[in-house]
Known about the structure:
The structure holds two protein chains of two kinds.
Chain A (H helix, E strand, L loop, with lengths): L2 E6 L2 E6 L4 H7 L23 E4 L6 E2 L9 E4 L3 H16 L16 H8 L17 E2 L3 E3 L9 H9 L6 E3 L6 E3 L16 H5 L5 E3 L3 H8 L5 E6 L20 H11 L3 E4 H22 L5 E2 L4 H10 L13 H17 L6 E7 L3 H6 L5 E2 L2 E2 L3 E4 H10 L21 H4 L6 H15 L17 E8 L2 E9 L1 H12 L6 E5 L16 H4 L4 H15 L9 H11 L5 H7 L12
Parallel strand pairs in A: 1-5, 11-12, 11-14, 13-20, 14-17, 19-20
Antiparallel strand pairs in A: 1-2, 3-4, 3-5, 6-7, 7-10, 8-9, 15-16, 18-19
Helix pairs in contact in A: 8-10, 8-14
Chain B lengths: L10 H15 L6 H12 L4 H11 L3 H10 L11 E6 L2 H5 L2 H12 L12 E6 L11 E3 L2 E3 L7 H9 L2
Parallel strand pairs in B: 1-2
Antiparallel strand pairs in B: 1-3, 3-4
Helix pairs in contact in B: 1-2, 1-3, 2-3, 3-4
Amino acid sequence: MNKVHISIDGISLYVPENYTILQAAKEVNITIPTLCFLKDVNEIGCCRMCVVEVKGSKALQAACVHPVREGMEVFTHTPKVMEARKVNLELILSNHDAMCQTCTRSWMDCELQTLANKLSVDTVRFTGDKKRQPLDIGVSIVRDPNKCILCRRCIGACKNIQTVAVIDTMNRGFDTVVGSAFGLKLDETPCTNCGQCINVCPVAALHEKNDTDRVWEAINDPTKHVVVQTAPAVRVALGEEFYMNIGESVTGKMVTALRMLGFDKVFDTDTGADLTIMEEGAELIDRIRGGGKLPLITSCSPGWIKFCEHNFPDMLDNLSSCKSPHQMFGAVLKTYYAQKEGINPDDIVTVSIMPCTAKKFEAKRPEMEVDGRSDVDIVLTTRELGKMIYDVGIDFPSLGDSDFDNPFGEASGAGAIFGTTGGVMEAALRTVADILNDSSADNFEYEEVRGLEGIKVATIEIADLKVRAAVAHGLGNARKLMEAIEAGEEFHFVEIMACPGGCINGGGQPLQLSDIRNWVDVKAERAKNLYKEDRKMFIRKSHNNPAVKKLYKEFLGMAGGKQAHKLLHTHYAPRKNYED
Amino acid sequence: MTQNCAGCADFQEKSGQLSKIIAKYKDTQGALIPVLHEAQELFGYLPLEVQRQIAQELDIPLAEVYGVVSFYTQFSINPKGKYQINVCMGTACYVKGASEILDKFRTRLSIDVGECTDDQKFSLDACRCIGACGLAPVVTINDEVYGKLTADEVDDILDKYEDR
Lengths: 580, 164
């Protein structure tokens, strides 16, 4: 990479020529304020919060998108710059619904508040046309146009990263809103509920549908037996809600906190993941040996499932019929567990703590019940759990560790890595390899399917088979991979997760401000710690999980058998796009 | 869904024509706006069915198509009446009392801006400067221009069209 000489506030530096002014300033320890800019998601320079003076340019320039060039002289805090930033921010605030006291983002992470503070905006001199707009309250996602500052980050995530493109800017002037075509509600569009829009929103214009009240109601009802399960990705992110390090593993503290909140039993969704591997592994072997439909495509990610139903309706037979891990586990809790503990299943309330907003939609799908009972009654995001813990005054970082409850106890390391892209594939390969080789392999870390490359392709030799595998994360990458498969590229096994990086970066995960996201790869930090979790585990393959073995022996029979199918499998149907 | 193509009995036939319009522009950059113009000419307005077809055949998200349609006042998602009333809201007309005239049309016809009467006879729009500031405030009904108008004259003008 060629480099250029520039100066920023009189400091000379030598930076790669593809740098923006924003990046170059960071090299000399100056963080230029940004609002609409979010690395890889929205790089359009529309909010003018990052303006700087460039010698020789008449107008102020947006540092986030303005490239450096040889000899450039930049000034980041002249009076002209400071005044322009302040006025811009005042104008944004002039028609913002500043009900901060009752706002879901104000307790820790509102970027607008942070910025107003940073720019010392102590008064707003203008009053804009504050039109009160109705909220769009969906099954998973809530949109509040009154909080929206039109930064367009959500549009970048929905349109460019996910290629779902159900939101855009509508109308003009003071009537401008980010919304869907014809003012439709998100639930009436092909929205996948992935929640990536929430993850990038700097304010509270987008958030999950809050279901914590329903959980408190269940906990406070003495006739209910409330059991909670936690997805793998939650444990490497929940700490961030309490200002702990990004990706820091807090499994033991999380279990302690859940007991303190009043849940009757605390289980690990990793157990459900181990079950999924038993079923999906059997399905893969069956399809390869029996000439079934290939590639087999994973079905753990409900955002991906809805995307497939809307966009690739002809390929639904390729999807694994397996329910996602928490749904499988929910079905087991209301049957096997209820029987074993002698509890009426109608008195059991199953709660799932998920890194995901799409799981709220998934749990409500009519297919997700057994004998008229929902597998999972309530889904909370990692953020909602964080807020429950915060609300009751539990000092989370100071908590001691606890273990998950029996009869399921600790799950396998294979279950833990389900939370990151490539993890489901690797977990399945560990089990499938042992079954096909009829032995226990010592080398079972499949590096070729790890990492954050958008689409990963590998050929893995197992027994007499050469398994062609592909892994995609983020729906834009999923679309590319699916189009390649439609065009004839052949695979045996394909893993798809709706969110970039997988569940660790799900739409329900703790929000990191753009000031952090622009410089640190949050996904990579969280993924790293999930792989560490795996290495710490005594059991690292799903089929060796003793609780799962016992479950099959006592209750389910064989993987892929009749009872397993009734409880653990589902089906899909094409969905229309904007039909009447 | 909100906007049905009511009164488009010949939707199928027109849809074929729309495909031809789209094909004509498909490979040019910025195809959307000329396609929308011709589509509006063909259908009279741009209901969901029409925008959906444009989105599919140009391979542009529907949300983006609707975003453009809702940005420009020339495009309409509501059907237009036999008589299309345009009240100029440009600066000159505005200061000469255009909003009172607009309000008068609104109450007399019981429709809001952008809407059409139930009998499909009148539609009402507010438009930007039409370049006839010397005649401010100005209203056009189809191709006829009414200048230096007062709110009191609105009833007489509408009666004339009611009788036609």
